């Protein structure tokens, strides 16, 4: 973290160990994709198996010597571990290997730092990095290790560390205050949507599941899409129109990953609140992934951590264009309610089925009927059209107009409140049979 970094193409040795004490080990293929996404150039992959990590260097002496040989043979500049290392383990490994060492958390933080585009995203990444860095400050001052303590013998190393820690704490406090303001602004936006009775749909799922491609397919937003991990970091929101429902808000959120570092979950809480406050979660899954059941469990674990696990979910199995003999379709439960949609966001197959399923899930709170309006109710008529609630309209001989309405009941009651003559219990309103 305190070493000079080239802009890209760092030669890296990757290290992955399987531990018998860990029930759900990391996926080595995903680890390699993470390293490549960060800009590393993997030149060697070291595998091993242990009962428990070595408290000093995480790996045993034999494996450490193997890694050292790989580093020298390939002239690697970086060793990346697919695990979480303690600050002392990182420091000891760097001393033994004579190069920079990075763990899984540091690797993901580096990717997030590259992907952040908005002011909020950059603040959240910096906060996570500073918290991670605060436990590793001493590593940057190993050239002052020989400074002795005691009266008259305190060297500049101790003074510098204290200064850095104080500056870090001040910067962390400053960022947290600014993020608190961002959180307030997001809450204000959510309150505005609640007042307008706009349902919010949040795309959640594992990284690289195709959320942004699906978001672009539905909204024509043109957000950044690439076949890489964490291509999307900053959330994007767009208003969409759903059949028989009307207006809704669709949010594209950051992707999850196996064992997502807790610091990132905490730092990105303001962003992840979009999922925690959604009306319906669209859980996007790579339908072509062999381990999709494990991936679904990992996403649900993160949703539970941000208190979003009780929000209704609609499963969206994407990438059916990579599967054989799988056509777009809707899976329903015993009550006939849509629970999953199979589609391809890249080709557009099945997206219409997704919109239909969403409309059905949101339609539980919808009301339909005929509303008769007199000429003096032209303002209410305009508001109903603005909400995309009017399905059909016809004028009667006496000058009144008859509207066929379909919209959320709470929104209808809010619009009709200033017009008691048009209330849902008045003769002018006829609910659909």
From TrEMBL:
InterPro entries found in the cross-reference section: G_HFLX_dom, GTP-bd, GTP-bd_M, GTPase_HflX, GTPase_HflX_N, GTPase_HflX_N_sf, HflX_C, P-loop_NTPase
Coiled coil, from the record: 158-192
SUPFAM superfamilies to which the protein is assigned, alphabetical: P-loop containing nucleoside triphosphate hydrolases
Keyword annotations from UniProtKB, A to Z: Coiled coil, Cytoplasm, GTP-binding, Magnesium, Metal-binding, Nucleotide-binding
Keyword Cytoplasm: yes
Membrane-traversing stretches: none
Domain Hflx-type G: 199-366
Keyword Methyltransferase: no
One Pfam family hit: GTP-bdg_M
Compartments in which it is found: Cytoplasm
Primary location group: cytoplasm
HAMAP family referenced in this protein's UniProt entry, alphabetically: GTPase_HflX
PANTHER family in the record: GTP-BINDING PROTEIN 6-RELATED, GTP-BINDING PROTEIN HFLX
Quaternary data: Monomer. Associates with the 50S ribosomal subunit.
Role summary: GTPase that associates with the 50S ribosomal subunit and may have a role during protein synthesis or ribosome biogenesis.
Entry similarity comment: Belongs to the TRAFAC class OBG-HflX-like GTPase superfamily. HflX GTPase family.
Protein name as annotated: GTPase HflX
């Amino acid at each position: 973290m305190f070493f000079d970094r080239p802009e890209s193409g760092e030669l890296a040795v990757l290290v992955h160990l399987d531990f018998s004490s860990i029930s759900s080990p990391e996926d080595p293929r995903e680890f390699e994709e993470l390293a490549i996404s960060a800009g590393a150039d993997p030149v060697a992959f070291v595998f091993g198996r242990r009962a428990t990590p070595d408290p000093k260097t995480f790996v045993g002496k034999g494996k450490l010597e193997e890694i050292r040989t790989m580093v020298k043979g390939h002239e690697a500049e970086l060793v990346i571990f697919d695990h979480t290392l303690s600050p002392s383990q990182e420091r000891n490994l760097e001393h033994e290997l004579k190069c920079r060492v990075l763990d899984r958390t540091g690797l993901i933080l580096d990717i997030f730092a590259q992907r952040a585009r908005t002011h909020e995203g950059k603040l959240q990444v910096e906060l996570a990095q500073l918290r991670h860095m605060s436990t590793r400050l001493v590593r940057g001052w190993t050239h002052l290790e020989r400074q002795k303590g005691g009266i008259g013998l305190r060297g500049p190393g101790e003074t510098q560390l204290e200064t850095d820690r104080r500056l870090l704490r001040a910067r962390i406090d400053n960022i947290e205050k600014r993020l608190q303001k961002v959180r307030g602004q997001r809450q204000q936006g959510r309150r505005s949507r609640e007042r307008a009775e706009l349902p919010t749909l949040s795309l959640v799922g594992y990284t690289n599941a195709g959320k942004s491609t699906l978001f672009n397919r539905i909204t024509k937003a043109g957000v950044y899409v690439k076949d890489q991990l964490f291509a999307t970091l900053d959330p994007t929101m767009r208003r969409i129109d759903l059949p028989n429902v009307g207006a809704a808000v669709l949010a594209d959120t950051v992707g999850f990953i196996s064992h997502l570092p807790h610091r990132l979950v905490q730092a990105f809480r303001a962003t992840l609140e979009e999922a925690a406050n959604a009306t319906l979660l669209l859980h996007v899954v790579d339908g072509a992934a062999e381990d999709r059941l494990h991936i679904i469990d990992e996403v649900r674990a993160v949703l539970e951590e941000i208190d979003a696990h009780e929000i209704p979910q609609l499963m969206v199995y994407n990438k059916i264009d990579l599967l054989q003999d799988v056509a777009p379709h809707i899976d329903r439960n015993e009550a006939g309610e849509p629970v999953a949609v199979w589609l391809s966001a890249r080709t557009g197959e099945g997206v219409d089925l997704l919109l239909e399923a969403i409309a059905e899930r949101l339609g539980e709170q919808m009301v339909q009927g005929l509303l008769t309006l007199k000429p003096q109710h032209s303002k209410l008529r305009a508001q109903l059209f603005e909400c995309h609630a009017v399905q059909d309209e016809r004028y009667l001989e006496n000058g009144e107009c008859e509207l066929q309405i379909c919209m959320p009941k709470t929104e209808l009651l809010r619009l009709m409140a200033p017009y008691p003559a048009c209330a849902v219990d008045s003769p002018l309103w006829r609910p659909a049979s």
